[in-house]
Amino acid sequence: MTTQANGSNGNGHHVDVSVSAESEGGASLFHVAPPPGELTKKDFVSNQEVRWCPGCGDYAILNNVQKVMPELGIAREKMVFVSGIGCSSRFPYYMNTYGFHSIHGRAPAIATGIKAANPELSVWVITGDGDALSIGGNHFMHVLRRNLDINYILFNNRIYGLTKGQYSPTSVFGQRTKSTPMGVIDYPVNPLSLAIASEATFVARSIDIDVKHLGVMVEAAARHKGVSFLEVYQNCNIFNDHAFDYFAERSVRSDKVLYLEHGKPMIFGKDRTQGIRMNGAHPEVVTIGENGITEADLLVHDINLEDPSVAFMLARMEQPDFPQPVGIFRAVERPSYDQMLVDQIDTAIAKSGPGSLEKLIYSGDMWTVE
Prior knowledge:
Elements: E1 2-8, E2 14-20, E3 29-32, H1 58-68, E4 79-83, H2 91-94, E5 98-101, H3 107-117, E6 122-128, H4 129-135, H5 137-145, E7 151-156, H6 191-197, E8 202-207, H7 211-223, E9 228-233, H8 245-248, H9 250-256, E10 257-260, E11 267-268, E12 274-279, E13 282-287, H10 309-316, E14 324-331, H11 337-352, H12 357-361
Parallel strand pairs: 4-5, 4-6, 6-7, 7-9, 8-9, 10-14
Antiparallel strand pairs: 1-2, 2-3, 8-14, 11-12, 12-13
Helix pairs in contact: 1-7, 4-5, 6-10
């Protein structure tokens, strides 16, 4: 049996003390967690057996999140991972932090309550394309538009994995699945388009097998003040294997993927000779050096544009007509919902005092039933 207690080590550092009642020789063993600046990846690995299918892309995402956490300098007891239902939603069990495995599609609502109650916490929502975009679609939209200061990672494998292979909101048109044996006749949701239309202040995308890029995106999302939304193309090797190979596989990635870099022209290709320029109101792929085209003609990426139209346009660019964009699409600053909520509470207390629950109950419209 293990219990946990929180306290101070006398140097102003918060400590996490784990007490085991089943230690050798009957003596209790005390493990004091190091202060935030001394944490390592191992400190964020829980003692739970990771139960995903061998080869699942979820492992890469978990590994990168655990690697990034020590870089943030945040104590583990200040972190909360919230999930809904699905393969991705096992995530909180594998993080040695606080966690909440909530109900289908409602992780953003739980996360909102946690962040509103304690704005000092670093709150993460871990979800999948089914959990977030079908039953959770309304919660998804509202947590983004409110700009709650949380980090939202969506594992997009374009399939329902936990329930064994039914089509999801992001499954491609015509895809044959267990629930669509003649092909999907729904038009798929584009998660980035929906996030940008919902006014998310940070929107990014990465690929599970592009480990270095994924780590950079996770850290960038964590450091953003306000809501951060990160979509990860994640392979389900059981029910939708090779779904992203046509652009994500290493042998073709340089020619098929556009890595967005702030302040730099949009260039891609193994020889770095392909680029994106605007032809009137429409983007087009061009070759540098042909017809007098130079880097100066290419579209320069700017993540700080308050107008989301360019970010939205990039979110709609897809194979085979365009390279698949990954990276940060948008990162703008706005007051966060939780901070504005705290400000309103402070203003109300300063104006009217701390208040009384009894007075509140007996105020306003009242009537007596004889």
